[in-house]
Model the fold of this input.
Amino acid sequence: MTSASRGMRATGWVVTASVLLIVAGALNLINGFYALEHKSYFTNQIAYNHLNFWGWTFVIWGVLQLAAGILAWSGRSAGYWIGVFVAGVAMVLWFFMIFSAPFAALLGFGLNTLVLCGLTVGAHADEF
Done:
């Protein structure tokens, strides 16, 4: 088997990280579509400008998270790479939110740390 077609074995850590990515991706997709379709709710609740931009950003981010979760669960190395990238960027973004929403920021940072750990430490190359 060539190194390009070699897969990864999904361990318990990888499955946990994949489920977290899939759930986060689904929630971000829902939030993104809701921001695009129901602008009045968001403008009444919080002061956001450019809801089209943020709606599409959440939709794209959710698709990336869903794809990473599904690919990692199936043992594809692309899923690991995308998942590590998405979790790393999310950790930085949650870190910047620490003063405005401390509980949510700590929870988001911790869950993304778990995803990052699961995808890096929990992955093992197949021996075949």
